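Field reference: sequence -> structure
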Amino acid sequence: MPEADVTALLAFFKAMANESRLKLVGLLAHGEHTVQELAEVLGLKEPTVSHHLAVLKDLGLVAVRPDGVMRWHSLKPGALAQMNRRLLDQDPAALAPEETWEDRILATFVAPDGALTIPASRRKRWVVLKWLAEKFAEGARYPERAVNETIQRHHWDSATLRRELIGASMMAREAGVYWRLPEAEWRGFADAKPE
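Structure field:
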């Protein structure tokens, strides 16, 4: 699916996730209305209705017809059907997220049961360490025993992997207690990306 279509669909679903906008679409599907009429029916203030209408207009769903000092809003005929076609007429494979470099590394070094192999390449190892670090909640404190148990669910050498996680600044340790650091503090991220 082209990136422009993905962006348009995301904007559409984000806009339609709002209850007031859904109600506006329903009202406008039955005919033209002014902002004042819509505000009265929905129990909203006119500026709020105007804002919601502007969002729907930007999506191409609402048409505006000036009539003297009044502005009449209506649902564009076929706009929802056109959006539906954009979504459903796609090849299902095109809707699947594109596999990233990190996905390919994880598929190679992490088995379906979660058992991992430590890659020799530093860039690939970083991806596996990131996957492993995400098994720990950020900010939570873990005794060394709990860290070892979590790591050993995936690989027998918990000592090496603990050191690797600390060396990459993914985790910190003090007095036998470990915690996951925020991803922004992790070292080696730029080096780990493919060229």
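Note: Residues 115 and 153 are 7 Å apart (CA to CA).
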